Amino acid sequence: DAGVIQSPRHEVTEMGQEVTLRCKPISGHNSLFWYRQTMMRGLELLIYFNNNVPIDDSGMPEDRFSAKMPNASFSTLKIQPSEPRDSAVYFCASSYRTEANYGYTFGSGTRLTVV
Amino acid sequence: AQSVAQPEDQVNVAEGNPLTVKCTYSVSGNPYLFWYVQYPNRGLQFLLKYITGDNLVKGSYGFEAEFNKSQTSFHLKKPSALVSDSALYFCAVRDQGGSARQLTFGSGTQLTVLP
């Protein structure tokens, strides 16, 4: 298995533009998590899905952020409009079950820079 | 609520010496505990986990961790550090009896092994 695949690896965009981050979880995993990592705030859980359904989006910072999982093999995180404070590394992770004793597999992340 | 603390932002150790990265947790029930490692420009990688059973858990790359219920700790250890162990280490917890279905991560500890 190729692991959790995220694209793009790097994204530089101008303030106000729409940004879409993509994630392909491991086949067979039915839970998917989006995290944001910054020096100031560390690793923050934004949202997670179980069986393609959003379970908890309380970590989504504001309405400019939205996430979808149209099927078991694909998820997107969209920021519209983007702001410089959104600059961070965004990680996607998947797990066989939401119950975390199975652990998570993380993608390599998307480094977003908003100028 | 579940929480985890990594009291040291930075740990430096000489190559060949033993290393310890500290982690303490807080849960209302029994914990699931994890250690992850992050190398530069990479996602988090699973190292080891404690679910139940022996308090000493052995994981990847020669790492081990000891679960101490009375001290609510789960320190990561390795008998002989390698320069290649230099990375960012995260402790994570989930309360087995709690309502939260996801892991809570610590703030991370940067380990530097000096040659």
Describe the structure.
The complex is a heterodimer of chains A (115) and B (115). Chain A is mainly beta and 115 residues long. Chain A is built from no helices and eleven strands. Helix content of chain A is 0%, strand content 54%. Chain B has 115 residues and is an all-beta fold. In chain B, the strands form three sheets. In chain B, strands 2, 5, 6, 10, 11 and 12 form a six-stranded mixed sheet that branches. In chain B, a hairpin with a 5-residue loop joins strand 7 and strand 8. The mean pLDDT of chain B is 92. The chains are: A mainly beta (115), B mainly beta (115). Chains A and B meet through strand 5 and strand 10 of A and strand 5, strand 6 and strand 10 of B.
Tell me the series of helices and strands of chain A, N- to C-terminal: EEEEEEEEEEE
Query: Oligomeric status of the shown chains?
Result: heterodimer
Order of SSEs of chain B: EEEEEEEEEEEE
* Average pLDDT reading of chain B: 92
Shape of chain A: globular
- Coarse structural class of chain B: mainly beta
Determine the strand fraction of chain A and express it as a percent band: over 45%
**N-to-C span of chain B:** 41 Å
Assign a percent range to the helix content of chain B: under 10%
Quick one: overall form of chain B?
A: globular
Number of strands of chain A: 11
Largest sheet of chain B: 6 strands, mixed
Helix vs. strand class of chain A:
mainly beta
Largest sheet of chain A: 7 strands, mixed
- Low-pLDDT runs of 5+ residues of chain B are none
Note the topology:
The complex is a heterodimer of chains A (115) and B (115).
Chain A: E1 5-7, E2 10-13, E3 19-24, E4 31-38, E5 42-50, E6 53-56, E7 65-71, E8 74-79, E9 88-95, E10 105-106, E11 110-114
Parallel strand pairs in A: 2-11
Antiparallel strand pairs in A: 1-3, 3-8, 4-5, 4-9, 5-6, 7-8, 9-10, 9-11
Chain B: E1 3-5, E2 10-14, E3 19-21, E4 24-26, E5 31-38, E6 44-50, E7 56-58, E8 64-68, E9 73-78, E10 87-95, E11 104-105, E12 109-114
Parallel strand pairs in B: 2-12
Antiparallel strand pairs in B: 1-4, 3-9, 5-6, 5-10, 7-8, 8-9, 10-11, 10-12
